[in-house]
Amino acid sequence: MKKLFGYVLIGLVLVGLVLPGCTPETTEVVVIATDATWPPFEYVDEQTKEIVGFDIDLMTAIAEEAGIEIRFENVAWDPLLAGMALCQYDAAISAMTITEERAEQWLFSDPYFYAGQIVTVHIDNTTITSKYDLPGKVVGAQIGTTGAIEVEKIGGATLKTYDDIGLAFQDLMNKQIDAIIADNPLALGYINENLDKLKTAGDVFTDENYGIAVCKDNPDLLEKINDGLAAVKAEGLIEQLVQKWL
Q: What CA–CA distance (Å, rounded) separates 101 from 109?
């Protein structure tokens, strides 16, 4: 009788192992890198200590549409770029301009936001009215960004790089540098918070599109993200986020 009971018990265990739904499924968490120093697209809320912003809301909505579970990881810009090239992160959303050089290192989603570079100067500055006045000047930009690339294109301008763009704007307000080149939504955000200290000089002078970076070894994830992005675009989410954050 004991032997019979033992056989029945073993049988039940084996059945439990093979029947679908009898063992808990593990959900793979997709790690999304972001440099949370770029308001209003991604930054750390001082009160809640949570990462918030345009990109965070967008990626969260995309994940819901795509049926994937995500976790944001706050990473400085330079390590983020290097990490994406090595697939240390599954994806990254961080107001990242789609460029040919970057597209050789990782995959990009469809574009989700149009932006461009603009010059910001101190409110007292009367000599810089556009990027053409920057030769001979010290110009700040975040390291590894298209803003830094644009400064390097200007003959005679001295590039000063920053790991945190907020430090660049602090230096500009203290007149320790002459100007900053950065994405126009970011620049306008800092200007609106410091109208007595900052202003733009000239118009936006580049045409750029933001995209979501994806590890080059994971085209399936790219497809899911693009599907989710298309769905939230169709629902008008981009316009809603512009109203909320910009």
A: 15
- In the block, which residue shows the tokens 């050089």? 101
Give mean pLDDT, residues 82-103. 96
Indicate whether this model's pTM tops 0.85. Answer: no
Tell me the chain's radius of gyration from C-alpha atoms. 24
The tokens for 165 are 């763009």
Tokens of 7: 């056989």
Cα(212)–Cα(195) distance, integer angstroms: 32
- Place 169 in a pLDDT band, splitting at 50, 70 and 90: very high
Domains and CATH numbers, the chain: 29-114+209-245 (3.40.190.10), 117-201 (3.40.190.10)
CA–CA separation, 171 and 103 (whole Å): 32
The number of helices, as runs of H, and strands, as runs of E, in the chain is: 9, 15
- DSSP structure class, residue 133: G
Q: Give me the long-range contacts of 129-133 (CB less than 8 A, separation at least 24).
A: 129/201, 129/202, 130/201, 130/202, 130/203, 130/205, 131/181, 131/201, 131/202, 131/205, 133/201
